[in-house]
Amino acid sequence: MTLIAELFALAALLYFGNRAAPIVWRNIELGRGRISLLGTAIVAGVLVWSMGMASSSLFSPSDEHADHAHDHDHGHEAISTTKLSSQDAAQPEGSDYEWALPQGFPLPRVPADNPMTAAKVELGRYLFYDERLSGNGTQSCGSCHLQSLAFADGHQLPTGSTGEMHMRNSPGLANVAYNATLTWANPILDELEKQIVVPMFGELPIELGITGYEAEVFERLTEDARYQELFPAAFPDDDDPFSIGNTVKALASFIRSMISGNSSYDQYVYAGDKSALSESARRGMNLFLSERFECHHCHGGFNFSGSTVHQNSTFVEKVFQNNGLYNIGSTGAYPQVNPGLHEFTRNEDDMGRFRPPSLRNVELTAPYMHDGSIATLEEVIQHYADGGRFIEDGEHAGDGRQSPYKSGFVPGFEITNQEANDLVNFLKSLTDEQFISDSRYSDPFVD
Fold it and tell me: Residue 12's pLDDT is what?
């Protein structure tokens, strides 16, 4: 997108406000399209403006940590939670939402212009699962984000409402409230309110495909008796609560509420249940935390991700790493459609750098990597043991192990079959069975 087009988009947003979204997004798609870093910042920032709109706990390096956990046994049903309301912690004015945070979890950061409320979360839940929010009425957010898969979709690459295949894997949504950035590679999309507009209106590729069908989509919503109650309840101060901005805010509120922290690992570390992890998983945890394997450098903290932000964060670190997945023609290049952070910065050193995702519920979010090109956890571990991927022939041929841009945290290592099995069992211990069946996040149209 040229600078002239970006300035046009900016002018449209300033002049038309929320109504400009169709104009702005008709020819750009922030997460995957061709828009400059400056243009992204300008357009995303002004869009959010136009809508009117703890320190992290490190996980245990050994059984010693569990010995200092609570002596009482909570069992495997649930661990104790910390309930925080707007009166208990620094939340934006106007919030009435009660966070039921797992032990060890800080309060998520929430934009001041979109405070969490129970009514917005409930409206967002309906919108998230409503296929009428797509241009052709065939797909919802929930079509590519399934609760049973921790809100991933199980496919290598997702397919949009018009049948167009996308170029990046559909990530899980558990704990996205803590993500410093919201897509695989875009450093500007750092709030849900910015990112959600992309699948709604983007055309490269088309996801929900609302562009060109705005009036029809909102007619469907405004005629629904349920939404005639939910929108005014969520936005009681608005004369006309039915708007693009309010739809975005409600969706962001619901997705921000998706907190996962009741896995076997959490039972072991925070609830003091020493039976929660098998011996194999405990060995795998120690391997994960070792300098020998380096896993924790990119997947650390309570959310098992280096790209984490929360209410108590003193600074925001937006982490992107090259893990040696490609080295096309021995030049360090990645496939043209997926160059990673380089797409936005044009900095040569950013080639192939993508955000390290959270490993919570990673057992459920296969296939892996930004392009879904690795099928199993076992293959992921072998990839890192090899220090990258060697592709012998084809258009992507090259030795990722020798990439000049590969992270120093991917040097490769020796690993036995038993150690690989232990590491897989530890990763599986991060699965939160309660989260994937929690009625607060379920499809209200099938309840």
Answer: 41
The token pair at 41 is: 């910042």
Q: Could you list the beta-strand ranges (E) of 143-279.
A: none
- Tokens representing 383 are 């990839």
Q: Where are the domains of the chain?
A: 3-50+113-258
Please tell me the predicted confidence (pLDDT) of residue 90: 57
- In sequence order, the 6+-apart residues with CB closer than 8 A to the CB of 314 are none
User: pLDDT tens digits, residue range 296-352?
Assistant: 999 999 999 999 999 999 989 899 999 999 999 999 999 999 999 999 999 999 999
Fold of 3-50+113-258: Cytochrome Bc1 Complex; Chain D, domain 2 (1.10.760)
Please spell the DSSP secondary structure of 88-105, one letter per residue.
TS---TT----EEEETTP
CA dist., res. 62 & res. 242, Å (int): 52
Token representation of residue 35: 């828009």
d(CA 443, CA 411): 43
For residue 447, name the pLDDT band (cuts at 50, 70, 90).
Answer: low
Which residues face 434 on adjacent strands? none
Separation between Cα atoms, residue 133 and residue 250, nearest integer Å = 13
Exposure pattern of 356-391 as b/e (b: 16+ CB <10 Å)?
bbbbbbbbbbbbbbbbbbbeebeebbebbebbbbeb
- Predicted TM-score of the model (pTM): 0.83
Inter-CA distances, 316 with 101, 173, 180, 259, Å: 21, 20, 7, 20
Predicted pLDDT of residue 31: 35
What average pLDDT does the segment 20-49 reach?
Answer: 40
CB within 8 A of 80, min separation 6: which ones? Answer: 70, 74, 103, 270, 271
Residue 133 Cα distances to 126, 153, 210, angstroms: 10, 19, 7
